[in-house]
Design a protein that fits this description.
two-stranded antiparallel ribbon; Rossmann fold; 16 helices
């Protein structure tokens, strides 16, 4: 909750400074702020501000980790400001109802807001590093130690490890109370080892009247990493967390996907034709690459992509795609660099095989392999696979069982938390991948 509150504060601060920059821009440009000038600018700029916030989200400027490194933050902020300026100019010239085309005003506004946004993030960074939560972690496993180190390296999250109780067998009520009082503990994270200790759980229970927040390790891990720790969950956790009813979400999602896929197919049709011609001219073989993939309820469907490798590449190499893979054609590298090789999957969405957002569908041989080595892997198949997903925007393409294991932790988080809001955020982040290719 604390992390979400901080992110909300960061967004609200930007909105306040967007309007402050607007007022200052009018004052600088015209020398006064009359009712006529205010009315002429307020509504159009308010609509454009929505685009600014969206661009800033795509650029990662609402990720609390972005405030840690000043150099990276300035680069992200400058790129996002320039991108927002360009988007704003396009919006003003594309919407005649705005009745203004303030190109010079937008440049002045952007310069003012950049200064405000930078100063705001500097202040926010100083404030966010003041620990609001003093944490006691109970349990000394590898993942607990890793999480402790992560919190130490990211103080802007607002959690500070005040004490780590590694040996859960030496604890008693008196010792537990002394730690809480001496280290002013207000948050306790119970590790997997401690979850089976009756003494620890009773000691935690007896101190609830002190207003201490208690989190199990899985919940804390999800909060900080936005993924699910596979090593710390069990069948009951999986069953109770992925079986939640999503009727309204699913009812709204499907009609939206049909409409959006049709619109995108029409808009992208010239580029699709260009890609098809480029593939045929560059190498022998079909335009489209098709492969059986496993989808919802383990149903096998045919996925469509533009062919980026030599014909029959699957017969000459493994399913994994390696860096500088010699099977990739020259034009195929361009398609992969722009991610446009995925465009034919819009037809999969239209047919209902896939969604815009969901776990990426895998080939049958890979799924068979993953089932044997990754616990609960078939949970991925309770929802439709997607063109993009939470794992895609948070982790690199997998090229090993270990990396597939890591990606599945993100997929499991998405399946648990899926919603229209999360889908929109993933789509925005996916746009960043297209724009910045990372």
């Amino acid at each position: 909750m604390l992390i979400k509150i901080k992110q909300a504060i960061l967004v609200i601060g930007d909105i306040i400074f967007l309007y402050a920059s607007l007022f200052l821009m009018i004052l600088v440009r015209y020398g006064n702020i009359s009712k006529f000038l205010f009315d002429a600018h307020f509504v159009p700029f308010s609509i454009v501000f929505i685009l600014w916030v969206a661009v800033f989200y795509i650029a990662g400027l609402y990720d609390l980790r972005a405030v840690k490194n000043r150099v990276d933050m300035i680069q992200q902020l400058l790129a996002a400001t320039i991108a927002s300026l360009i988007v704003s100019i396009i919006a003003f010239y594309s919407i005649p109802a705005f009745n203004i085309a303030p190109k010079r005003n937008l440049v002045i506004f952007s310069a003012i807001f950049f200064v405000f946004a930078y100063g705001w993030r500097e202040l926010f960074g100083l404030w966010s590093k003041i620990p609001q939560k003093r944490v006691l972690t109970v349990g000394g496993g590898k993942e607990e130690n890793s999480m402790n180190e992560y919190l130490f390296e990211n103080p802007q999250l607002g959690y500070k490890i005040a004490f780590q109780m590694s040996d859960v067998h030496q604890s008693n009520d008196e010792y537990f109370l002394k730690i809480i009082e001496d280290y002013k503990i207000d948050t306790i994270i119970i590790g997997p080892q401690a979850e089976h200790s009756q003494e620890i759980l009773e000691s935690v229970y007896k101190n609830l009247d002190k207003g201490i927040e208690v989190m199990d390790f899985t919940s804390a891990y999800e909060l900080f990493y936005k993924k699910v720790p596979l090593s710390a969950i069990h069948y009951l956790w999986v069953s109770t967390n992925v079986s939640k009813s999503q009727r309204i979400y699913e009812t709204i999602k499907r009609p939206f996907e049909i409409l959006l896929s049709l619109i995108l197919i029409i808009i992208l049709s010239p580029f699709i034709l260009f890609a098809a011609i480029g593939i045929k001219l560059n190498s022998k073989g079909p335009v489209f690459y098709t492969q059986p993939r496993i989808g919802k309820k383990q149903k096998i469907f045919t996925i469509y992509k533009f062919r980026t490798m030599i014909n029959n590449a699957d017969h000459n190499g493994p399913d994994w795609t390696e860096n500088h893979d010699p099977r990739i054609t020259g034009f195929g590298r361009i398609l992969r660099f722009t991610h446009f090789d995925e465009a034919p999957q819009l037809f999969n969405v239209l047919r209902g095989d896939m969604s815009f957002v969901g776990p990426r569908p895998e080939s049958v041989p890979l799924v068979e392999s993953f089932r044997k080595k990754i616990p609960y892997y078939d949970v991925r198949h309770i929802i439709k696979p997607g063109i993009s997903g939470w794992a895609q925007i948070n982790y690199k393409p997998s090229a090993s069982i270990e990396e597939a294991y890591e990606k599945f932790q993100y997929d499991l988080y998405y399946i648990k938390e899926r919603s229209l809001t999360l889908d929109v955020l993933i789509i925005l982040k996916t746009l960043k991948m297209f724009l910045y290719n990372n």
